[in-house]
């Protein structure tokens, strides 16, 4: 999707960097083979006058030696005695106070350290012998070069990928939209102590009223949404955030030239000791039940709620999180066109129990979902608005499941703005299945009055259900903040699989008329866009 925001880390690497792989040289015999010296990270170009706070992170074994760090022109000495070093992994910088604000490792101050923004070759030596080297070029401002077993890349300073968080068995309530709009707003209305709401866009008066009422009851309410959603922010959206701020609610927007994420795209809320995770935005088209087919769960577990509360605090506590009042100064907003559809409630929510894992992107969500699909033995059902790449890890895992005999179904949106590309992917998947005799089939969803379009991002793989905001495209898994939960539960899997089957039964694998409809819709939309009367937020 086009965006005027700064290039995210993946694109920066692809477009502007030529990065040499770190070279590890065998250490002298006294160093342990299982714990070799290494460069871990570097921030050569912090957002500060004179690059104050620049640093490099090293991992040095607990051995006494003459350790030095050199850039070919200047050599600085590191503490020889392990007792004088704050562990094996630490940051090295010549402005310790400034470095501590940026580094997530203990800091060792040195007399002088100057990392060139244009490029550098750093050498770590033990007793004069090179044991590790690091080369980089064109360090992006405000980003950190991270090196690890999974590769190396530039990431915004302040972003730290999380591991998958595993929780025990919890009470879980699954629901669908537009069938059950009362579930998300009812969950918010039940807040007694804390209410943290994270989202991409926010235009719902009903949700705003629930948050204001909670704040008036003394509930601690905070809101974090994206600063610059695709298509911009509508006047309605700005008015809703104004209403929240006027009520004394802490409202922040996340973005800017040094944002940790390309988009803050999750849809979740922490309500006391419950976690609400869904695929839909906080708007009439989403949680309001006025448009989209969406999936959601309410998890009643303090550990899950605290986990997401910690994520919220981390995301809302960065320098790229700006108070709404400050962000909106001097800005004007275009009128919006909120959805006002009406759809039947055919599938009621279902309450059950299951073990829960919290997945986040960037960092772990893609690999975790691939693992869910790879672990299936019987059936995999996938519902997505669209799929970004045929050769992406998620779709490859889906085809791989069919190759080992798992029955696989992929249901994609037939909405006008993705009709052509989705129809082409449906044809391709069905063609692969036919040529290779695989138990794989794909369709475009046909709402037929039950909803307007597919916006759900879900997987049912045997007894595991994945629900959340994760789109199957490169930006979502690598650059956006996304949140999903994977719940292992036979009952919940049955619930969402039956919901999937109902939508699947109304879908179509025939794409010729979809292509024609998509072309006609594109022509109509081009005229409408020229008149600046349509918005594109629904694509998210």
What's the gist of this structure?
This protein is an alpha+beta fold. 27% of the residues lie in helices and 29% in strands. Helix 3 packs parallel to helix 4 (205-216) and helix 4 (205-216) runs parallel beside helix 5.
Question: What integer is the average pLDDT?
Answer: 87
Strands, count: 27
Number of helices: 13
- For this entry, what is the oligomeric state of its chains? single chain
Q: What distance separates the N and C termini? A: 9 Å
Which term fits the overall shape? globular
**What fraction of residues sit in β-strands?**
25-35%
Summarize the amount of helix as a percent range: 25-40%
Low-confidence segments, given as residue ranges, are 1-34, 510-539
Structural class, by secondary structure, is alpha+beta
How is the biggest beta sheet arranged? 16 strands, mixed
Rg (C-alpha, Å): 25 Å
